[in-house]
Design brief:
The complex is a heterodimer. By secondary structure, chain A is an alpha/beta fold. Chain A is built from 16 helices and 14 strands. Chain A folds into 2 domains: 28-140 and 286-352, 3-Layer(aba) Sandwich (D-Maltodextrin-Binding Protein, domain 2); 143-282 and 363-399, Periplasmic binding protein-like II (D-Maltodextrin-Binding Protein, domain 2, 3-Layer(aba) Sandwich). The model of chain A has no long low-confidence stretch (mean pLDDT 89). By secondary structure, chain B is mainly α. Classes of the chains: A alpha/beta, B mainly alpha.
Chain lengths: 402, 322
């Protein structure tokens, strides 16, 4: 009897906790992973503060992850059922993520009226097997970024580039700190005639002599002591900010920081034409997108999409454009009269769209190895590109489970 | 006979039931966090488990396919060469442990000089590398090895009074032609790990030195033994029993020295400084080949098991001698 009383008492006490609970906006907490830094991170933080002011029930936690680790970190955590609600990354991640079912399709959240405000090419790029798997925030490609006080006349082709750089380099000031990362230098591979995939998405990088021509070109640059050719983003970045590099290859995301450091001395123009074939530099044109985690429930998804809609609204994209030089996906953002963005838009005309198929993930490291081994005189261009071809195709086969 | 022992086993369990109840919670936790992953990994090693299977764990059984791929260097990953990595790992281990021990013992002997001024300060300073978390030291060394802006090249430039631009971390070629499989980055890793590793050996050697009674040295002096003789005939044999276990430990640590390799050279350039554990990591991340990585992990386990058995035998042999 005593026991029964005790139980009743406990139940009564516990139920008293729930007195006064009535429906009110459920607090929602969203996590966003990104690799924005500098001016872009400032704009993100501003935008989050603004959004939280409008929606007091929502808390947004942002986590900055270095770009070279972000994809793997998300892939590992999301595949294990976790991960952030929102991820910011380039469109070429879509294929792998969608195949492993790590990102949620977003078709049902955006209607045609909403989409009408966005660059059609950008919306097209984030479609995988007909579904919209991400929402584009900005478009990007790499171009020539130069310091106007060191470079007066822009080189037309790569021969002129070499002559110009040889005349600029002096002491610890370099004419060109050339980033030999494949993403940055891919434009010359395509200008030389290299192709990545055939119609079946199998690798064909060693077909023709495009790869060999481009690798030979890079090797010639590297053997010129007036150039720094290194797969070192940080070095090119800091040397340009310090005014020690007259020219670098980089994308719009970095220009906000450069104008903070160098003011109006920063110029952007298309890279010089590849002299050997006469073709223009053809960089990857990509979008930077918001992804929504496939693991989260519908309420979280709705909240995440609502935040994304805010992030791609005209006002926020305008801020990203003004402070961080992001090239907006929203056509309502006023970008006229900006020479820097003009330079990137000019370069984009000769660019190639970044493939978003899962096979693209197999390309990066083998191509980088080809470049690095040629620059280090460990392999001849032809052997290097053949090895790359084999490794890429092996990786593709492995990912297809063959 | 068998039945009897079975019954007695059951009897034992029954009699000490309470004791087993006590360890039950930790046994369950151990089974979940230690035993289960191990068996899961062994299963994965025989499948083509990849990134898509994390959600849908029904990969295909491939038998010994993963092991064959590893031993024939057919893993779809750039710069993968199991045998080169294995040979490099062994060379790396012995080069390091040799330097750790020689530097450690030399410093310990030097600091063991009676009535040396500021002895404690020296000892403290020399132990600092050990006191700093190794990944922090590794990151600092990595920056110091930068070809253009790193402290190492700048100090060398000042000392030699000329521009020194040693491509420590970027050049996959060998600076010493005879040792053609050792890139510049190997020496960068080696310097870092020697800096990190000698204090441990020094501390162990100091402890062992202080346990040698002074009378032995006095007797040797009376017999007219010179300093060199004292070191090789008395000091070394007497600290051997203390040094050997430390050396065995050093071998296992260095063989798996992930921090230094991964953070200083990253296994690069072009995979020239990859050791087995960093290679295993890369097979998963960025490789995404979980099945192959599991097989690789098993191989590393058996290599370490062999090393441990050998070292155990050596250690026991020395123990019985003394």
């Amino acid at each position: 009897m005593k026991k029964v009383l005790l139980v009743l008492l406990v139940v009564a006490m516990l139920s008293s906790f729930f007195v006064g609970c009535k429906p009110k906006p459920q607090p929602v907490s969203l996590t966003i992973w990104h690799s924005w830094s500098g001016a872009e991170l400032d704009v993100l933080n501003e935008a989050i503060a603004e959004y939280q002011k409008q929606h007091p029930e929502i808390t947004i936690n942002q986590l900055q992850v270095p770009f070279d680790q972000l994809q793997n970190k998300y892939q590992t955590e999301a595949a294990a059922g976790g991960g952030p609600d929102i991820l910011v990354g380039p469109a070429d991640w879509i294929g792998n993520f969608a195949k492993a079912n790590l990102i949620a399709p977003l078709d049902s959240y955006f209607d045609a009226a909403f989409l009408a405000d966005y660059v059609p090419g950008a919306i097209e790029q984030v479609k995988f097997n007909g579904s919209m798997m991400a929402f584009p925030q900005s478009t990007e490609c790499v171009a020539l970024i130069y310091n106007k006080s060191l470079v007066q006349n822009l080189p037309k082709d790569t021969n002129e580039l070499v002559t110009l750089v040889d005349s600029i380099t002096q002491g610890d000031t370099y004419g060109f700190v050339y980033n030999s990362g494949f993403y940055f230098t891919a434009g010359y591979f395509f200008a030389a005639g290299m192709k990545l995939f055939d119609a079946n998405s199998d690798a064909i990088v060693s077909q023709g002599d495009g790869g060999v021509k481009a690798l030979t070109f890079l090797k010639n640059l590297a053997s010129d002591p007036k150039f720094i050719v290194a797969n070192d983003y940080g070095k090119a970045d800091s040397m340009f900010k310090e005014g020690k590099a007259a020219m670098i290859i980089n994308g719009p995301w970095a220009v906000g920081d450069y104008t903070n450091a160098l003011g109006d001395k920063v110029g952007v123009a298309p890279m010089p034409v590849f002299a050997e074939t006469g073709n223009p530099f053809a960089p990857f044109v990509n979008t930077k997108d918001f992804f929504v985690n496939a693991n989260i429930n519908d309420t979280q998804k709705k909240a995440a999409v609502d935040f994304i809609k805010f992030m791609v609204s005209k006002d926020v994209e305008q801020k990203f454009f003004e402070k961080a030089k992001h090239i907006p996906s929203n056509v309502k953002v006023d970008t006229s009269s900006d020479l820097i963005v003009g330079g990137f838009l000019e370069q984009m005309k000769t660019g190639v769209p970044m493939p978003i198929i899962p096979e693209m993930g197999a390309v990066w490291d083998p191509m980088q190895t080809a470049i690095d081994s040629v620059l280090a005189s460990k392999a001849m261009p032809q052997d290097a590109i053949n090895t790359a071809q084999t490794t890429i195709q092996d990786k593709i086969n492995a990912s297809r489970g063959q | 006979m068998v039945d009897k022992s079975d019954i007695s086993m059951w009897e034992k369990l029954r009699r000490h039931r309470l004791a087993y109840y006590y360890i039950l919670p930790s046994a369950i936790v151990m089974a979940l966090i230690t035993a289960f992953p191990i068996f899961y990994q062994i299963w994965m090693a025989f499948t083509n488990f990849n990134i898509t299977n994390l959600r849908n764990p029904h990969p295909d059984f491939v038998g010994l396919g993963n092991f064959i791929k590893i031993f024939t260097n057919k893993v779809p990953l750039e710069n993968f060469n199991f045998w080169r990595t294995f040979a490099f790992d062994i060379f790396w281990t012995f080069a390091n442990v040799f330097l750790h021990v020689t530097i450690g013992i030399s410093l310990a002997v030097a600091l063991n000089t009676p009535r040396l001024a500021f002895k404690k300060i020296y000892r403290t300073l020399l132990v600092i590398p050990w006191a700093v978390p190794s990944y922090i030291s590794a990151l600092i060394w990595r920056n110091m090895f930068d070809a253009d802006f790193g402290a190492v090249n700048q100090i060398l430039s000042n000392i030699l009074n000329m521009t020194v631009k040693i491509p420590w971390l970027t050049n996959p070629n060998a600076p010493i032609k005879i040792l053609s499989f050792l890139s510049y980055a190997f020496y960068a890793d080696l310097i870092t790990n020697v800096w990190l590793g000698f204090p441990f050996m020094m501390v162990v050697a100091t402890g062992a030195l202080q346990s040698i009674p002074n009378e032995i040295f006095e007797a040797a002096e009376i017999d007219g033994v010179n300093e060199r003789g004292k070191f090789f005939k008395i000091t070394l044999p007497l600290i051997r029993s203390a040094m050997l276990p430390a050396i065995m430990l050093g071998i296992v640590w260095t063989f798996n020295q992930f921090n230094v390799i991964y953070l200083v050279s990253g296994g690069g350039p072009l995979g020239t400084t990859e050791i087995l554990v960093t290679q295993a990591y890369k097979i998963v991340n960025p490789g995404g080949l979980y099945g192959v990585a599991s097989a690789f992990g098993l191989i590393v386990f058996f290599i370490l098991l062999a090393i441990t058995l050998i070292t155990n035998r050596i250690t026991r042999a020395t123990e019985s001698q003394i």
